[in-house]
């Protein structure tokens, strides 16, 4: 019986020592190379230049050179925000996900398939958003006057 109690106490202590808090798991998740690569892709000159181009009014286009130059300017500026973005991702992940969910994210994105999925997500979304951009611009032109009217209403 004495050995059973000692073994149970050891098991509980061992479990507590290996258990990670939600905050620790959130930081581990955000610091994963796959997640860091995704952030780098989001902050890349190409991605940022394309985002600016997609947000332009209908009929306004940018040359590839202008998109690249705008992307370079934006990427340099956004690089200063990266630590803050990571901080917000860590706190947001800790608040949003349970420890089990964070462990599942870490396991998935750390796996061969998860790593491949993460590496393909940015180009996938860039393609989707690039194809959707003209429709989004048309929608913005359609609802823009109504949105401006609402904004200009007195509080």
Strand content: under 5%
Number of strands: 0
Mean pLDDT: 83
Q: Total number of helical segments?
A: 8
End-to-end gap? 73 Å
> Which oligomeric state applies?
single chain
Which blocks of ≥5 consecutive residues have pLDDT under 50? 4-18
Rg estimate, integer Å: 23 Å
What is the share of helical residues?
Answer: over 70%
Global outline: globular
Order of helices and strands: HHHHHHHH
Give me the secondary-structure category: mainly alpha
Major sheet description: none
Descriptive keywords:
single chain, globular, 155 residues
Description:
- The model is unreliable at 4-18 (pLDDT under 50).
- The longest helix is centred in the last third of the chain and has 41 residues, at 112-152.
- The protein contains eight helices and no strands.
- It is globular.
- Helices cover 84% and strands 0% of the residues.
- α2 crosses α6 (82-96).
- With 155 residues, the chain is mostly helical.
Topology:
Elements lengths: L1 H17 L3 H9 L2 H10 L2 H10 L9 H16 L2 H15 L2 H12 L1 H41 L3
Helix pairs in contact: 2-6, 2-7, 3-8, 4-5, 7-8
